[in-house]
Design a protein that fits this description.
5 domains, alpha+beta, S-adenosyl-L-methionine, six-stranded mixed β-sheet, 33 helices
Length: 883
C-alpha cells in the first residue's frame, strides 16, 4: 500500500514561521520543495535565518536579466562573467575545425565538474556547517571599516560596489543573505559557461561538419529526427521557464541552503508532472540537440552531464531537503514496526536481507546463479539458443499465470491464507511464505531474461547478420537500451522506497488493512508508474539485442503487466480503498487535463454520443455484475444445482423396468427435493411379484453415475440396502464381513412385503458429503437398473460462527461430530489419528461454517469448545482481511 509522508521542519525556531504547503490542483500529500506561490503577493517577502532573524527580502533577478538586460545596472563581476562567456566564441573562431570538438569537450567537462563538484562541494558544506557564511565572517567580506575607504581591503570594496550597484545596503541584511547574493555570481559564471560551452560543442558537432554530413539518411528519418529534436528542445525551454515561474530566484539559486522564506508553497505546472523536473525532464533538450546534430559525441556528453546532475541531486539536494524538511522514513519505520508486531524476520527482497541460515534464501540464490551461468555453458547452436529461450519463456509464463492466479484467488476468496489457516498456521506465516515464493520466481524471471539477452548479444548466429549490420545503429541501440534499463531500475527503486516491503509484496492482499491509501513519492506524479516504466528495461533489452526472441519475451512481459494491473491489482485496491482514492489522477494526468479547454471539458461529446456511451457503460456494468453474482457463494447455497436437477429429473424418472418403482417417504425430498446431511432417507419401493429377493437399492451421486442409466458402473461404496431381509447374498464387491454389520444393514429394512417395502438409509449407510444424489433399484445380485429416482440434494446445515463461544455453537459442532462418530468422546473419536473420520469431520466443518480447516487443527483443539475457539479466531482473521 502507499503510505503518507511525514514532514517536519526542526530547522525553524518558531512553528508559525513554517511555510505552508498548498496545491492549486489536488489535495494529495506533496513532497517538500522550496517553491514560492506563483501569484506572489505584493507585500514584501520575509526571510528567516537559522538563528531566527527575520528580514524583508529585496527584489532579485534571474541570471539572464542580470547579465544581459541593459536596463539593469551592471557590476564588475557581471562584466567579468560576460567576458568569460565571449571567450568561448573567440576560442571556437580561432581553433581549427579539427580541434574544436576535442577542445569544447574538455571545456564543457571542466565547467560541468565545476557545476556538480564545485557547487556541490560548496552547498554540501553550507548545508552541514554553513561554511560559506563562516568564510564571509572570517574574511569580513561585508564589514565597513571605521576609517576612510582606502583602509578597506580590495575584496571589501568589490563587495560594497556589488551591493551598491544592486541598490542593496549589505549592513541592513543578515550575513546569510549577503553571502547568498555573492554566491549567486559564482553560480552565474559556472552555469552560463556550462551552457555556452555545450552549445559551442553542439555547433561543432552539427551537420555542418563534413564528417557528419556524409552520413546518408532517408528523408522520413530526417523529418522525424528534426521534429523530435525540436520538440525536446521546446519542451525543455517550457520546463525551465515554468520552473522559474514557480520557484523564482530563491530556489533557482538554492536559497534555502542559506535562509528560508515565509511563503506558501504551490505545486503545479511542471512540478506536478514529474519528480525533480529541473534534473529529469529539464535535460531532455540535451537529447534534442543530439538528434539534430546526429552526433554520438553530443549524445554521450549529454548522458555524462545528466548522470552527474543526478549524482548532484542524490548527494547534495536530497540530503539537504531531508535535513530541513524532515526525512520521509515513515515507510521504513512502518515496515520495521510491522515486522516486530508480526514476529517476522526481515523479508528478503532480491538479495537484501539475505540470510545464510535461511534455506529458502540459499536455494533462491543457487537457482538465480544457475539461470545466469548455464546459458553460457551451452554450445553456440540454434538448438541451444531456442532451448534457453524456451526455458526463459516457461519461467515467465509460470510466474505470470501462477502468481496472478494466487493473487486473484486471494483477493476474492482468501484462498492462500485459508490454506495456511486450515493447517493451523497464522496469516503471517501465509504472508511470509508468499514473499519467499514471489521474490524467488520474480527474480528468476529477470535473471533468466538477462542471461538470454546477454547470450543474444554475444552469441548471435550469422542468420541475424542482416539486422545486426551497421545500418541498425548498434551504438545508439545500446545507449537507448541502457537508458531504458536504468529507467526501470529507478522506477522500481522509487516504488519500493515509497511502499516498502509490504506494499511491494502485495501486503494488501494478505494482511488486514493497515492504513488508508495516499499519494506521495512517485505515485504523486503517476497513478501506476509500473504500467509503462516498470517494463521499460525489458523493452530496452529488446532494443539493444535487436532479437525477435527477446522482443517476443518483452511482449509477454507487457501482457502480464496489463493483466496484473487491470484485472488483479486495481479491482482489489478499489474494493479495499474505494474507487475515488485508487483512480485519483496523478500529477501528469492533472496537468494534461488542465491544458484541455474548459468548453471541451464541460461540453464533452455531443448529447447523443454521450447518451450512447452512458447506455453502453450501463449495460456493460450490469453484465459484469451479473457475471460476478453468478459465481458459487458457498456449499450451502446451491440453487443452480437444484435447477439443474429439475431439468434432468424427467430423464431420471423415465428410465424404469415395468413394474419397478421407488419413491421417498421424506416430505422435504418430495416437495423441496433436499434433505439435510445426517437425516435418515426413507425409500419406498414397488416391484412385481416375480422380483428377486436379492434386489437391492443403492445411493449414488448423480455426477458419478453419468449417463449410464440401464446399468450402474460404479460401486456404491457401502451405501446400499437389500430390499428383503431374507436375502442371503449381496452384490459382488459389497460383501458383509461381520455378523454385526449384516444385522445393522438388515435392520434398515423397515417393511418387506412381496411387492413393496420400505428401507431407510441411516448411520454408516448415509453419505457424509453434500451434493445431488439419486437412489437406484437394482435387479437381483447384479448392477442392472430397475428404476432410478428423481434427483435430490443433500445439504449441510449452515452454522453461523459467533463472536464468542456459545452453548448453541458448541452444540452445533457436537452434532457434526455425532455424524462422524456417534456416541463417542471428542478425543476417542480421533484416537490414533483416524484418517477417514478426520477427513469427514474437517469436510463437515468447512461445508457448514464456510471455513476450511486441516486435520492438524482438529487434533490440536482437543475438545469441541477448543475447536470452536479456533474457528472464531480464524473467522476474525478472515473478516479483518475482508474489511
Amino acid at each position: 500500500m502507499i503510505k503518507a509522508k511525514s514532514v517536519s521542519r526542526e530547522f525553524l525556531p518558531d512553528e508559525e514561521l513554517v511555510p505552508s504547503i498548498s496545491t492549486s490542483s489536488s489535495d494529495t500529500p506533496l513532497e517538500p520543495l522550496v517553491l514560492l506561490d506563483k501569484d506572489a503577493p505584493t507585500a514584501p517577502i520575509t526571510g528567516i535565518t537559522a538563528g531566527g532573524v527575520s528580514f524583508v527580502v529585496p527584489e532579485t533577478h534571474d541570471m539572464v536579466r542580470t547579465l544581459f538586460d541593459p536596463t539593469l545596472r551592471k557590476t564588475v563581476l557581471d562584466a567579468a562573467i560576460v567576458v568569460a562567456l565571449l571567450s568561448n566564441f573567440a576560442i571556437y573562431y580561432l581553433l581549427p575545425p579539427a580541434y574544436r570538438i576535442s577542445a569544447f569537450i574538455a571545456i564543457y567537462v571542466f565547467w560541468r565538474f565545476g557545476y556538480n563538484l564545485g557547487i556541490g562541494y560548496l552547498l554540501y558544506h553550507q548545508s552541514r556547517e554553513s561554511r560559506m557564511v563562516k568564510w564571509a565572517q572570517r574574511w569580513q567580506l561585508f564589514a565597513r571599516a571605521a576609517g576612510p575607504a582606502s583602509s578597506r581591503t580590495r575584496v571589501q570594496r568589490i563587495m560594497e560596489q556589488e551591493f551598491s550597484a544592486k541598490g542593496i545596503a549589505s549592513a541592513s541584511y543578515p550575513i546569510e543573505f549577503n553571502t547568498w547574493l555573492i554566491y549567486r555570481k559564482f553560480v552565474d559564471l559556472i552555469l552560463m559557461q556550462d551552457f555556452t560551452a555545450y552549445m559551442c560543442l553542439v555547433v561543432a558537432c552539427s551537420a555542418l561538419n563534413p564528417a557528419v554530413a556524409r552520413i546518408v539518411e532517408l528523408p522520413v528519418l530526417t523529418a522525424i529526427r528534426w521534429s523530435l529534436g525540436m520538440a525536446f528542445i521546446l519542451f525543455n525551454l517550457w520546463v525551465k521557464l515554468d520552473a522559474h515561474r514557480i520557484i523564482k530566484d530563491f530556489a533557482w539559486y538554492w536559497g534555502d541552503f542559506f535562509f528560508l522564506q515565509k511563503a506558501d508553497l504551490v505545486f503545479d505546472g511542471v512540478f506536478d508532472m514529474v519528480p525533480h523536473p529541473m534534473y529529469s525532464v529539464g535535460y531532455i533538450g540535451y537529447y534534442g540537440f543530439a538528434l539534430l546534430t546526429k552526433s554520438y559525441t553530443v549524445l554521450i556528453v549529454s548522458l555524462f552531464a545528466h548522470c552527474l546532475q543526478f549524482a548532484f541531486l542524490i548527494g547534495v539536494e536530497n540530503p539537504h531537503i531531508e535535513k530541513i524538511y524532515g526525512s520521509d522514513d515513515s515507510t521504513g519505520q512502518g515496515d520495521q514496526v510491522l515486522l516486530e508486531k508480526l514476529h517476522l524476520k526481515p523479508l528478503i527482497f532480491g538479495l537484501r536481507n539475505f540470510n545464510w541460515f535461511r534455506s529458502s534464501d540459499i536455494l533462491s540464490v543457487l537457482v538465480w546463479a544457475s539461470s545466469l551461468v548455464v546459458p553460457f555453458l551451452l554450445p553456440r547452436t540454434a538448438t541451444a539458443r531456442y532451448t534457453v529461450f524456451g526455458a526463459t519463456l516457461l519461467v515467465k509464463l509460470v510466474q505470470s499465470v501462477g502468481l496472478n492466479v494466487i493473487l486473484h484467488q486471494q483477493s476474492t476468496t482468501k484462498a492462500w491464507t485459508k490454506r495456511f489457516l486450515k493447517h493451523d498456521y497464522t496469516l503471517y506465516n501465509a504472508f511470509e511464505n508468499w514473499t519467499v515464493l514471489y521474490n524467488a520466481i520474480s527474480s528468476l524471471t529477470y535473471t533468466a531474461l538477462a542471461a538470454f539477452s546477454a547470450r543474444e548479444l554475444l552469441f548471435h548466429d550469422t542468420s541475424d547478420s542482416l539486422v545486426r549490420s551497421s545500418n541498425s545503429w548498434p551504438l545508439l541501440r545500446y545507449i537507448l537500451g541502457a537508458m531504458m534499463v536504468a529507467l526501470q531500475l529507478w522506477t522500481q527503486y522509487s516504488i519500493f522506497e515509497e511502499i516498502g516491503y509490504f506494499g511491494w509484496f502485495y501486503g494488501d492482499f494478505f494482511l488486514p488493512k493497515l492504513s488508508s491509501i495516499s499519494k506521495s513519492g512517485i505515485y504523486r506524479y503517476l497513478n501506476n508508474p509500473e504500467r509503462f516504466f516498470g517494463i521499460s528495461g525489458v523493452w530496452g533489452l529488446a532494443l539493444a539485442t535487436y532479437s525477435p526472441l527477446v522482443f517476443l519475451l518483452a511482449c509477454v512481459w507487457t501482457i502480464n503487466n496489463v493483466v496484473l494491473l487491470n484485472f488483479v491489482e486495481q479491482p482489489h485496491m478499489i474494493k479495499l480503498y474505494g474507487e475515488q482514492s485508487v483512480l485519483l489522477d496523478g500529477g501528469l494526468s492533472r496537468t494534461i487535463k488542465n491544458l484541455i479547454p474548459d468548453q471541451l471539458k464541460t461540453e464533452g461529446f455531443s448529447p447523443s454520443r454521450r447518451l450512447s456511451m452512458n447506455n453502453v457503460s450501463s449495460l456493460t456494468g450490469k453484465l459484469l455484475r451479473d457475471l460476478r453474482r453468478s459465481k458459487f457463494q458457498d456449499s450451502t447455497d446451491q440453487k443452480h444445482l437444484i435447477s439443474l436437477s429439475e431439468k434432468i429429473m424427467d430423464l431420471s424418472c423415465n428410465h424404469s423396468v415395468q413394474g419397478y418403482k421407488v419413491d421417498f417417504a421424506v416430505d422435504s425430498i418430495n416437495t423441496k427435493r433436499y434433505v439435510l446431511l445426517g437425516e435418515p432417507i426413507r425409500v419406498k419401493w414397488t416391484a412385481p411379484e416375480t422380483h428377486s429377493t436379492d434386489d437391492w437399492i443403492g445411493l449414488y451421486k448423480v455426477v458419478n453415475t453419468g449417463f449410464s442409466r440401464k446399468a450402474t458402473k460404479i460401486s456404491s461404496k457401502g451405501h446400499w440396502i437389500g430390499v428383503s431381509q431374507t436375502s442371503e447374498y449381496y452384490v459382488t464387491g459389497s460383501e458383509l464381513t461381520t455378523d454385526a454389520s449384516k444385522t445393522a444393514r438388515r435392520e434398515c429394512v423397515l417393511q418387506d412385503n412381496t411387492t413393496s417395502g420400505t428401507v431407510e438409509f441411516k448411520g454408516d449407510l448415509l453419505v457424509l458429503e453434500a451434493g445431488i444424489y439419486e437412489v437406484r433399484y437394482h435387479l437381483g445380485n447384479h448392477h442392472n437398473v430397475g428404476y432410478i429416482s428423481c434427483p435430490f440434494e443433500i445439504r449441510v446445515a449452515a452454522i453461523d460462527i459467533p463472536a464468542t463461544v456459545s452453548a448453541e455453537f458448541t452444540a452445533a459442532l457436537q452434532g457434526l461430530l455425532e455424524l462422524v462418530a456417534p456416541a463417542t468422546d471428542y478425543t476417542e473419536a480421533f484416537k490414533g489419528k483416524n484418517g477417514k473420520k478426520l477427513q469427514q469431520f474437517t469436510y463437515l466443518i468447512g461445508t457448514s461454517t464456510g471455513i476450511e480447516i486441516g486435520e492438524t487443527v482438529v487434533l490440536n483443539a482437543k475438545t469441541v469448545t477448543g475447536l470452536g475457539k479456533k474457528l472464531i479466531e480464524i473467522k476474525g482473521v478472515l473478516d479483518e482481511l475482508s474489511k
